[in-house]
């Protein structure tokens, strides 16, 4: 994921036992909001009760998984009370084996916020001091360097979250102002005292779904914007191809009641200023599927997004470690809430629907650059005329690149959740692969955004050429505004030129969600 510049925080997101929204995590990740731990005495007392209950059980020599026992399959190994205090340090230490690219700053903030949300529910047996330490990292701008690979998504995101646990204790490395710094030095410079984790706190930090959930929040936000952007691109492509806007007629869509799909068709009617006239003007009676069926393709994602959001928000607002500490009922409940199946399903489904958007755009581009199908526009949308047209190739190579990005996106649609692996002495014998699914989804989003950037250049060129071919064609007002915005970034392609600077600029616009697209 490309970094979004950290903005000056605009609002506070309060962390307590109340429900958070996906948007809260996205805003914290983007830097337009910052987390605050509630000062409500009742909330803080509820958190403290869990830690106090565990302390009492230890004084009474109670058997508690991960507190007086080893971890995972080692739950049968008793830990002497004299060594209980050292156990959390061992947990995050031996899980320091992550590899792969580090999470980006935005992703890291999302992960930290997701873990803070879960621990704030009050069922993890942690101290208020642990929650405050996470907030201190935010306030000081200290981001743990978290390797992205090494989680199977059940027993939680153990390895990546061990890097958060270690940094809270002044170990490993952080990113500060874009520079890698030893955590001990960074905490000392910020006046932050390293934590010594209490019993159960290492397990509470690591034995949860915060990495996959934080990434899923960011993926959902990007997918929602892409659905809107692809709709706008489709409207521009329809105009450039001299298409039939009656394919999006309201009565036509009223007989197939998928609300997301109907909403996409409504956006297209709005963009094309379709008023219900079924013109018979010599055009091809039916446009090809990538235009005519665009609402049906985009609509699958549009209809799935509310379900995906509910699943992600439910996970975000869950206590998802093990064991669950019921301080009110004075019980320690051993279960499997670290299992990330809901996030895995959401991410596997989302990447499939998003990859279909890449494929849709790729097909639209194929029509636009092919003189056999583009309604009288030049081959490859070459803008130059006269003798020099012979040596200019327009968007020929851009189509090849878009096809490559589409193919890679489609290749990644195999669901990660079906690749469960038995691990850890067959204790973790069925795992979710939710974090791999989330990482795959983000990669599919990245590739689809690249295809969208190439289509923005293509439709900008196609609409410009359509108006050159037929100067009498007036551009509907919503599309005219979009063309004005695109025109500020991309000039018409006359003589062949490199396009990667403009692609990078447009990718930045997409990832910053620079264009307001529909209500």
Write up this protein.
The protein is 52% helix and 7% strand. It is mainly alpha-helical and 519 residues long. The strands form four sheets. A three-stranded antiparallel sheet has the order 4-6-7. Strands 1-2 form a two-stranded parallel sheet. Strands 3-5 form a two-stranded antiparallel sheet. α1 links the parallel β1 and β2 (33-37). It is elongated.
What's the arrangement of secondary structure elements?
Blueprint: E1 11-15, H1 22-30, E2 33-37, H2 41-59, H3 87-94, E3 99-102, H4 105-119, H5 128-140, E4 142-144, E5 147-149, H6 158-168, E6 173-176, E7 179-182, H7 183-189, H8 201-206, H9 210-240, H10 250-254, H11 259-272, H12 289-292, H13 294-316, E8 324-326, E9 331-333, H14 341-369, H15 396-411, H16 434-469, H17 477-489, H18 500-511
Parallel strand pairs: 1-2
Antiparallel strand pairs: 3-5, 4-6, 6-7, 8-9
Helix pairs in contact: 1-4, 1-9, 3-6, 4-5, 4-9, 9-11, 9-13, 9-14, 9-16, 11-13, 13-14, 14-15, 14-16, 15-16, 16-18
């Amino acid at each position: 994921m490309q970094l979004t510049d950290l903005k000056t925080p605009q609002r506070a997101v309060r962390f307590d036992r109340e429900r958070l929204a996906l948007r809260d995590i996205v805003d914290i990740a983007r830097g337009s909001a910052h987390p605050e731990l509630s000062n409500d005495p009742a909330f803080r007392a509820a958190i403290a009760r869990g830690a106090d209950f565990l302390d009492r059980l230890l004084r009474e020599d109670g058997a508690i998984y991960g507190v007086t026992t080893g971890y995972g399959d080692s739950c049968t190994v008793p830990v002497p009370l004299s060594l209980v205090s050292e156990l959390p340090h061992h947990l995050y230490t031996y899980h320091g084996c992550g590899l792969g690219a580090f999470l980006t700053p935005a992703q890291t903030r999302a992960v930290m916020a997701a873990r803070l949300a879960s621990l704030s529910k009050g069922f993890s047996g942690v101290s208020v001091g642990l929650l405050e330490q996470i907030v201190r990292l935010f306030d000081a701008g200290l981001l743990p360097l978290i390797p992205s690979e090494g989680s199977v998504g059940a027993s939680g995101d153990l390895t990546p979250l061990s890097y958060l646990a270690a940094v809270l204790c002044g170990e490993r490395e952080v990113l500060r102002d874009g520079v890698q710094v030893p955590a001990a030095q960074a905490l000392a410079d910020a006046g932050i005292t390293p934590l010594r984790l209490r019993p159960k706190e290492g397990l509470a930090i690591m034995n949860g779904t915060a990495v996959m959930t934080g990434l899923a929040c960011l993926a959902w936000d990007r997918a929602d914007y892409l659905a809107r952007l692809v709709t706008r691109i489709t409207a521009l492509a329809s105009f450039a191809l001299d298409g039939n806007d009656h394919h999006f007629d309201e009565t036509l869509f009223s007989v197939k009641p998928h609300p997301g799909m109907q909403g996409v068709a409504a956006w297209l009617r709005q963009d094309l200023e379709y008023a219900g006239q079924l013109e018979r003007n010599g055009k091809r009676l039916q446009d090809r599927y990538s235009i005519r069926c665009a609402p049906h393709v985009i609509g699958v994602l549009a209809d799935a997004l509310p379900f995906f959001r509910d699943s992600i928000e439910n996970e975000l607002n869950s206590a998802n470690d093990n064991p669950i500490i019921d301080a009110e009922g004075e019980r320690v409940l051993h279960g499997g809430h670290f299992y990330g199946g809901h996030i895995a399903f959401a991410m596997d489904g989302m990447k499939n629907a998003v990859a279909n958007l890449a494929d849709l755009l790729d097909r639209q581009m194929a029509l636009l650059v092919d003189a056999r199908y583009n309604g009288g526009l030049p081959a490859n949308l070459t803008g130059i005329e006269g003798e020099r047209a012979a040596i200019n190739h327009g968007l020929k190579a851009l189509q090849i690149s878009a096809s490559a990005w589409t193919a890679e996106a489609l290749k990644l649609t195999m669901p990660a959740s079906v690749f469960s692996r038995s691990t850890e002495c067959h204790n973790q014998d069925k795992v979710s692969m939710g974090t791999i699914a989330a990482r795959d989804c983000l990669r599919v989003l990245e590739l689809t955004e690249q295809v969208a950037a190439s289509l923005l250049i293509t439709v900008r060129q196609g609409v410009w050429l359509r108006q050159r071919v037929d100067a009498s064609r007036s551009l509907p007002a919503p599309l005219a505004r979009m063309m004005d915005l695109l025109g500020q970034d991309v000039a018409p392609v006359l003589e062949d030129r490199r396009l990667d600077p403009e692609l990078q600029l447009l990718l930045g616009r997409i990832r910053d969600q620079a264009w307001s697209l529909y209500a």
